[in-house]
Each structure stands twice: as structure tokens, then as C-alpha cells.
Amino acid sequence: MTAPLAVFFVLAGLAVIGAINLILQKHPIHSALSLIVVMVALAGLYLLMGAEFVAAVQIIVYGGAIMVLFVLVIMLLNAGVEEHTSISKLAGVPGLLLVAALAGFIAATIARSTDVVQAAQQTGDMSSTKGISNMLFRDFVYPFELTSFLILVAIMGAVVLAQREKS
Amino acid sequence: MSTFLSSNAELIITLVKIVLLLFIVLTVNAYLTWFERKVVAHIQSRWGPHRVGPHGLLQPLADGVKFLFKEDPTPAGVDKFVFYLAPLLALALAMTSIAIIPFGPDPIHLFGHDVYLGIAPPDLNIGILALFAITALGVYGIALAGWSSNSKYPLLGGLRSSAQMISYELALTMSVVGVLLLAGSFNLRDIINAQAHHPELGILGWNVWPQILGFICFFIAAIAETNRAPFDLPEAESELVAGFHTEYASFKFAMFFIAEYTSMITVSCLCSIMFFGGWLSPFPASWTFTHYVPSVILISFGLWVIWDGIRYETVFGKIILPAAGTVITALGAVFILFPGVNAFIQAPFWLLLKIFIFLFVYVWMRGTLPRFRYDQLMAFGWKLLLPVSIVNVVLTSFAILAKMQWGAK
Amino acid sequence: MVPTNYYVILSAVLFGLGVFAFVFKRNIITIFMSIELMLNAVNLAFVAFSRAVGKLDGQVFVLFVIVVAAAEAAVGLGIIILIARNRQSLNVERVDLLKL
Which of B87, B153, B192, C91 reaches 20 to 30 Å from B339, CA-CA? Predict the structure, then answer.
């Protein structure tokens, strides 16, 4: 059990426990906190893989902006403990089995293909930040500018949707 | 035992550094509270704490004992897990951000290993980005504290405070982009080395002169980010009772307090590293006699403390103050006598001096300026600070492009 | 070295848990959070494959996924606020008719 493998299992366990906790918790704020734990664990996994820029962006944007939005909305709407009807409780067990089947199918397919997806060498010589910025501003400059337009549209949409009625 | 030590040497060195830095940061926090109370008091023409120990120097000890022994009630109806989590999160994140700051350029050679001053490894590629990540997560401590208190004023204070922090975070990160363009790297050591390209310029080579706009934006945004005066409306006593930490008593309140002062220290470190040359001396490198300036400052300060202690009123002060003064003078003398040690402490001394000056400016602003109203605060952040920092980025890019064109010709 | 298999299996497990949360939970905000969980699982697979192949395209794509998720979260939460204002409930079983 080498050190990277041990760190992987710790972070992966943290991510899975966070995801299970998201399902098990009744109050949405606890689910939100579990999702933040999942995101930080995934950022740790990105660091383990050598993708340091993506890890930093994951924490800043996902953990520090999107999830803050979720938490603020949960606070503002005063979301309480959620209730379940009898039908939804009935659907729990078959749902779990079906999802386990789905995840198992995907995992088994991946695990069976030995040659393509085994471990390869690191993306080594160029640091990930320089490499990503080179690609973003040269090969992918058109989608990059389009995302700025997308964010502008999203801002306008969110402002218009959340306005009070003028009556 | 020795093979265990030698094979895990890096880990053990890092653990020792973490424990040492934790002690140092907590002590500096405690004395920062003393410093703030004294400076704000003198600005307001009064004394500040001067009874508990000579010049009130044992006041932080008294405050600490008070925090330990005060009752710590948990109000009814709170969400217990989140209520206990919020101050913990705030403190942990504030302490983690100190780990990324480098305190000196040269490593100490200990047992065959290079021990760098600063917990993060010297080749951390995303230095300042990691700091922003930790700052971004810091919003949670306040938002969750405000919400879990099950009360109107903390909820409003928490929401206002977290909205303020998110808004100024944008201006904070944009104002740093100019420095990153000049340095070409996120690594804090590279940023300092980029300011050392012309060592004969000394103070004129620092980033603050080409990036004066960026520095002003960064400093103002950082004050708003750490919820300090004049941006401390969400936690001011005369406004929302006490804002998001109303329902928090002794030890949990102390945790928020320590988190706020630690983030103040982090921001001072960042300002001095990114804009004021970090550990570079303000004098040109050719003036080698300035290598004795730290010793001169220490010796004169030590002698002044001795002289003040001899004339102090209480017996306790008459003993402690001259003793402390003697220690400081001896330290200064040691630096003069041992040139190797003198060369080593040049860099950390200048960095600590700059951090101290920034902390003094922070406290000075608290004592002098009135508070912003909340709508003024948000309008200032979005309508003035963010556009100015974006203009700074554009201007810096044009300047670098122009330099490349003229330099090629 | 951690084999790429491990990362992709973890991604599949997280995706499955996201699907389960999406189907089983009744609070609109929690359902929305499970969508974010699914997107995160996919991001993990992208970065793992980018490391296996040796190119950085996967990581650039992850940046785009994060940006799109941010935009979607903003607009989606605006819609959720409107629903909560109009129906006074965050239970998705109460939002099953067009009529209020």
C-alpha cells in the first residue's frame, strides 16, 4: 500500500461517504454540507492526479461560489425538513437496486478493458496551469469567449427571475 | 527509531513546522488584540489596557482566561451540528491560509535536509490560487453561523456579511492579476523574485509603483473581505446587536475572533509579498552597510524598553520590562557579532517589519474611519472597485505588450 | 501510482449515487444538488482520462463543465425561488400540475 494509494482511498472514501450522507440527511442544509465535502474530496483527488489548476478552480468556483449560492438560497427560503409520501418510500428499495445495477454495469465495463485505461505516465513536463492557459487562449479561444457570453445571459436571467413583482 | 526518523524526515519536519507556526500565530493573535486596543485607545486620547501587567502586556492572558471560564450556552432550537461546526470551520480555514506564506528565501540545513521557512513546499505552482480557494471557503463559517443561531439578528448579519464577502472577493482576485502578469507565475516566491530583478533599485523596484491601482483595490477589498472597519457593519455592536456571532459565547466567540485576526495577518503578509517586495530590503543592494539596520533597530528598541522599564511605577514592571529590553538588545548584538546569522535574518526581518506596518495601518483605519452603510458598501464594491480592478488588468496587459514591442525593436 | 480504473470506478459510483438522490429525494433543492453531484462525477472521469492519455484537453473541458454548471445553478436557483414563492412549498410532489 503505497502512500498515493492510501491517500486515494481516504479521499475516495470521503467522497462516497459525503454522497451517501447527501441522500440520508433530511434537512437540505446538511445535504449541502455533505456535497461540499464531496467537492473538496474531489479537489484533493485532482491534486493527487497532478491537475492542480483544476483543483484550485474546483474549490474556488464550485465550493466557494456555486455551493454558497445553494446555501444562501436554502437559508433565504427557510427550507425545512423534507417529508416523504408513502409512494416515494415504496420506491426506495427498487430504486436502490436499479441504481446499483447501473453503477455496477458501468464499473464492470471499465474494469474489464485492461489495455486502454490503465495508468499512464503523467502529463509531466509543462505545468498544468501553463498548459491549460495555452490551450484555452489558442485552441479553445472561441468556446472560451462564448462562455463569457453564457455567463452574461445567466446573470441577466437570474436577476429577472428573482425580482419582486412590480404591482 | 533512527531509521524511522530518517525515512519519514520530511513528514516530521513538516509536523514540527506546523506546531511551531501554530504557536507563533496564536501568540501573535493574542498580542495583536493588545496592540489594537492600545493603538485605538491612543487615537481616541485615552490609555487602553495599562493595569494588567506593565503597559497592559498581560491583558491577552487575562482575556484568554476569561474566555476559558465563561459560560458557553447553546440557545434552544439551534441546529447543533452546524452551530458547533461554523466557528471550527472559520478558525481552521483562517489557520490553513498561513501555511502557504513563505517567510524567507533561504533554507536552513538541518540533519542533511533543506528546511524552508514556510510550510508549503517552495515549488507550489498554484501558491496564490490556493490562498484564494481557502478565502472563498471562508464565507461558509459566517453564513452557517448566522443561520444556525435560530434568531433574526444573526441571520441578517450572516447574510449581509456573506454577501459582502462574495462581492469583494471578485475585486480581490481581479486586482491581483496585474501582479501575476508582471511575475508570470502563481508561486509567491517567484512573485518576490520578479521584484528583485533590479536589486540596485531597492524600494523603487517593488510592485507597488507599477501596480498602484491594483494595490489600492487589493487593500480595500481585503479589508472588506476580512470584515474589518470601515466595512464591519455586519458585526458592529451598535448595529445588528453583534451580527452573526450574537449567540456565540465564550470559546466559540474566541474562535471567530482568532479567525478574524488570523485572516488580517494573512492579508498583511499577502500585501507585503505581492506589492511591497516581501523579504527584499528597501535599500539598494550595493549599500551593504544597511545589513546592520535590523541590529540597530533592535538594539535601540531594546535600550528604550530598558529605560522605560527602569522608570515604571510598579515593581513588577521594573523587573519585567528591563529584562525584556535586555533580551532584545542581546538579540541585536548577536546579529552584529555573527555575520552568518545576520545574513540569514535579513530577509525575514524585512518581511516581518512590513507585516507589522500593514497591521498598524489596519488598526489605524479602525480607529479613524466611520462605517459604511450596507448599500453604500455593496455599491462601492460592485460599481467602483470591480471596474477599477478590471481597468488595471487591461492597462497592465497593454503596458507589458508595449514593453515587449519596444524591447524587440 | 493509482490506476485509472480506480478513478473511473469511483466516478461511476458517485454518478450512481447522484442518480439515486435525483430520483428518491423530494426537496427541489436537494434534487438540484444531486445534479451537481453527477456533474462532479463526470468531471472526475474527464480528469482521470486526461491523465491517462497524457494531454490536457480533458482538464480544459472540465473548466467548461464547471462554468456551465455555474450558469445553470444560477438560473435554476432563480426558478426554484419563483416556485417557492408561488406554491409556498419546496416539495416536488406539489409541483406536478400546471394549475396552482
Answer: B192
Residue C100 has pLDDT above 70, yes or no: no
Which pLDDT value is given to residue A166?
Answer: 67
Q: In A, residues 45-74, which contact C (CB 8 Å cutoff)? A: 45-46, 48-51, 53-54, 57-58, 61-62, 65-66, 69-70, 73-74
Is C26's CB within 8 Å of A84's CB?
Answer: yes
CA–centroid distance for B331 within its chain:
24
Rounded to the nearest angstrom, the minimum Cα separation between A129 and chain C is 10
| Per-residue cell: B315 | 515593581
Cβ neighbourhood burial of B252 (10 Å; 0-12, 13-18, 19+): buried
A6 and C CB contact within 8 Å? no
The answer to whether the Cβ–Cβ distance between A64 and B159 falls below 8 Å is no
Distance CA B158, CA B148 (A): 10
Of A45, A79, A95, Cβ closest to residue C27: A79
- State the pLDDT at residue A37: 95
**What is the full DSSP assignment across B172-197?**
HHHHHHHHHHHH-SS-HHHHHHHTTS
Chain A residues touching residue C1 (CB < 8 angstroms): 2, 4, 119
Could you report the predicted ipTM of this complex, rounded to two decimals?
Answer: 0.92
pTM higher than 0.80, yes or no? Answer: yes
At residue A120, the pLDDT reads 54
Read off φ and ψ for residue B15, nearest 5 degrees: -65, -40
Q: Which pairs from A31-35 meet CB under 8 Å and 24+ separation? A: A31/C30, A31/C33, A32/A67, A32/A70, A32/A71, A32/A74, A32/C29, A32/C33, A33/B82, A33/B85, A35/A67, A35/A70, A35/C33, A35/C36, A35/C37
User: Which of A110, A124, A161 is facing C78, going by the closest CB pair?
Assistant: A161
> Considering only residues 99 to 158 of chain A, which have any Cβ-Cβ distance to chain C shorter than 8 Å?
99-100, 102-103, 106-107, 110-111, 117-124, 128, 131-132, 135-136, 140, 143, 147, 150-151, 153-155, 157-158
Q: Say which DSSP state B204 is in.
A: G
**Percent of residues, chain C, with pLDDT higher than 90:** 49
What is the mean pLDDT of the segment spanning C70-85? 91
| Nearest Cα residue in chain A from C15 | A103
Residue A44 grid coordinates: 484533493
Lowest mean pLDDT among A153-162, B304-313, B397-406, C86-95: C86-95
Cβ distance B205 to B370 under 8 Å? no
- Where is pLDDT greater, at C2 or B387? B387
Evaluate whether B224 touches B381 at the Cβ level (below 8 Å): yes
Question: How far apart are the C-alpha atoms of A158 and C73, rounded to whole Å?
Answer: 9
Distance of CA A154 to the CA centre of its chain: 20
What is the Cα–Cα distance from B381 to B375, expressed in whole angstroms? 10
Work out the angle at residue B12's Cα, subtended by the Cα atoms of residues B10 and B17, and round it to the nearest 5 degrees: 95
Count contacts between A and C (CB, < 8 Å).
233
Tens digit of each residue's pLDDT (9 = 90 or more) over A129-144? 888 888 889 989 999 9
Shortest alpha-carbon distance between residue C26 and chain A (Å) = 7
Inter-residue contact B9 to B111 (CB < 8 Å): yes
> What distance, in Å, lies between the first and last C-alpha atoms of chain A?
66
| Cell 485615552, residue located | B46
Q: Which domains does chain C have, with CATH numbers?
A: 4-94 (1.10.287.3510)
Residues from chain C that touch A151, judged by Cβ atoms under 8 A, are 67, 70-71
